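Re: 2-(butylsulfanyl)adenosine structure - here you go.
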Amino acid sequence: MTENFDLFSAEPPAQSAAAAPEKVIAKVQELRARLQRWAHEYYVQDAPTVPDGEYDRVFQQLQALEGAYPQLVTPDSPTQRVIGAVLEGLAPVRHAVPMLSIQTETDNEATGAIAFDQRVRRELGLGEADPVVEYVAEPKFDGLAMNLRYENGQLVQATTRGDGEVGEDVTHNIRTIRQIPLSLPAASSVPPVVEVRGEVHMAKADLQKLNERQLAAGGKTFANPRNAAAGSVRQLDSGIAAQRPLSFFAYGLGEITPAAQGGPDFVTHYAMLQMLKSWGFPVAPQVCIAQGAPELVAFHERLGAARESLPFEIDGVVYKVNSLALQRQLGFKSREPRWAVAHKYPAQEMPTLMESIDVQVGRTGKLTPVARLAPVQVGGVVVTNATLSNLFDIRKKGVRVGDTVIVRRAGDVIPEVVGRVAGERPVYVPNFRMPKTCPICGSAVVREKGEANHRCTGGLFCGAQRKEAILHFAHRRAMDIEGLGDKLVDQLVDAQVVRVLPDLYRLGLSSLAALDRMAEKSAQNVLAALEKSKSTTLQRFLFGLGIRHVGESTAKDLAKHFGKLDAIMDASVEELLQVNDVGPVVADSIHTFFAQPHNREVVEQLRACGVHWEEGEPAEKAPQILAGLTVVLTGTLPTLSRDAAKDMLEAAGAKVSGSVSKKTSYVVAGAEAGSKLAKAEELGVTVLDEAGMLVLLKGQGTA
Ligand code: IVH
């Protein structure tokens, strides 16, 4: 055995039977410590300090050394996470301390917190004059409860909750979860026996990625993180669990060596969580101390508002009395602690029957499939319709009429069909197809190349688009025609009184008052609002026309740039491209719109009806001091974004190109500029930094 062999060579000598040299033992320990620290920084703190490649390199070094000296392999080595053992079945394990559940209440308001606090105070015999009770408020994670047993600092067993008394041994799978330490630090606080309890779950983004992978591989998808976690943790083959991106949050303890026998001494739940954190367990950053009911209410509201944007799924909040002495005093009622309560938020996802799929036509002619559902309570309201964005969405989700589907409603967004509940289809139902003709006007339906959406080609001829077009025109931020809402537009279009936008200004008192439920006074108000709307701004008018891709801000940019409507109507695509933030798609859409004679006719008629606005002069064009020059941008500039720099250069007449050639006039390089900078240097092209570019733009450069 050579004492000084190269520890970093890819293949250490195969001498497994021999005793490992001191140096190797020390090296192995040092590599493990490094890998454990990096993994903790990466998986628990979300703050990696080394590149992945570096981790892999050190991991392989450790693997190589352990390969050469198998006697040095320990169960807590980072190389031992994925063991790939396949079990016959999951073994039952009786919990040393039962895994209880918490009293769970569903509430919409925050009143639950007040009721819980009152209950606790009453049980503790506290009067009004007594101080507030201190609580810990936690998210209620949507996952699977897990008991992690550590003996002498080593993870020896992981069990599911099961029925609370007896769970299943899932150690082989839990060992693959990077956020769960295989061994605890050699800290004085770590007792001979400790069971850490918490929730195995799957982050939203990880679940989405997993489902995409499952779909691509023809496997089944998971409706929520809870199913995904359960489906992964209860696998017999740990190789499968290892590929499932599981996470963990600690929230409690099971058996622990008592303080009298050398166990750690802590007096609050919060202090216990801090201790778990110091041992390397993830504790949710949202967990906080709350004084009395008002702070619980505030937590409930805060977390409810943040729920959508949290990286992991929660289904409510959990409140726990912080003092362990008070917890003992409160004790248990049947199988639930009196010192804790869970308040569930209304479910955001519910299964229901999809009865049919209808097709709706939007203002821009987009055909949207809409699922008609058996009524179901989701997120606190009854849902009967949900969107299925387009044909591809339906295909991707694999849903068919008659399926039980999962409906999701989050915040104010339109409910959507997430997927179908696995199971046999009782009868064969063909796949959904888009209609070939518009269900409203019968015009042909097309799907443009590269687009996911189908569209009706009827334009203003299509009733659906007409109604939407009128509503958009009347919108508060467009022509602002007060009183011209959904119902009235429906009536006007259905009665064929209004076919095109200018018809609005041809309405008379008699035709309006003739409509159902239209009093003369209301009719007069509508006429007055129409009259008032005639005097507008170019920006509002342009926005109101409902040109595809022309929102408020583009309308504003167009008005500012051209000053006059005629200039916009006659602008070429190239001229339109000069406008701030107008790219090829938008320019093309505007150009196509005004190329249609019927659209120009609408504009003319509106003007003839008296619609007017003040016209201005076109925005002054910057002096084209860089005309004829080609500039390439590369790397990150210190203050300007790539787009801002490009705009400035183009406004001064330069052409901004993506690749460096002999024809390039300048390369503007920022931090981390790569091959383009090298190419410029090779070709002898002048390289400027941001400051140099600004000098050039001022006309003081070397051009
Ligand atoms: S504490 C005695 N804290 O909810 C209290 N549970 O019915 C034991 N859960 O099975 C549980 N988030 O899976 C606790 N912050 C949290 C939790 C939480 C989710 C789950 C857990 C348990 C169920 C309680």
